[in-house]
């Protein structure tokens, strides 16, 4: 008898991944499909999303999604259920760099836009994902992308850090609320992960920052987050809920003190604006 083919950890499962067209989201979509899951990618970047599902194959779908828009998030959940019959995993991963600059100069609309994506987007993913899972009646796993910036000072701009702290707290509170339905809710707190959102095209400068700050002597990759997400989505973490798991190469343990300390962040307090990540929208910057 020939050797039996290994069954994937997520065989028969269906996952929705927001911000799944690039970076950590795309790496997770690739890992999930390799482990047997069907995947819906929800992303604001149409070109990248369509390219992603073309590469992933028949067990994937794409929908344009602004995670701050409730109708878009609800439609993404409906697409998963309508295409594959159910939804087992929601990875609320979509993110932007958001508002930056001195707190005395920040534009209130940039602050609100940061929270709309990073916090309201997670709330909406939990809300509509949990509704579908409750209706199914057999539980599920919700995973939220937080950040080490949400666990202490010095690891990110004010708006981003405050928003990610809110994600950690939302994770804990909804884990307790949804536990009776068999729905687990956890967060991943990445450190410096080498993605387009992180390095913004300046890879050499990003490499130098990692070397200066991070105790573990290699850069964090999107695949590291995908591995953590796979564990939280799969059966081996079946009794884990309400956790915020750091995936940061011991960055937070060493005390990051990133902003203002490194050469490439000192100018951030000489400008104010909004960074939109990999959405395709250009950053807005006003020099002080």
SSE map:
Layout: E1 14-18, H1 23-34, E2 38-43, H2 46-56, E3 60-64, H3 70-84, E4 89-92, E5 98-100, H4 108-136, E6 140-145, H5 158-178, E7 183-190, H6 196-199, H7 203-213, H8 222-233, E8 244-247, H9 251-254, E9 271-275, E10 284-287
Parallel strand pairs: 1-2, 1-4, 2-3, 4-6, 6-7, 7-8
Antiparallel strand pairs: 5-9, 9-10
Helix pairs in contact: 1-8, 3-4, 4-5
Descriptive report:
It is a single chain. The longest helix is centred in the middle third of the chain and has 29 residues, at 108-136. The mean pLDDT is 90. It is globular and about 55 Å long. Helix 1 packs across helix 8 (222-233), helix 3 runs parallel beside helix 4 and helix 4 packs parallel to helix 5. The chain is 41% helix and 17% strand. It has 288 residues and is α/β, with parallel strands linked by helices. The chain has a single domain (14-287), classed as Rossmann fold, CATH 3.40.50.720.
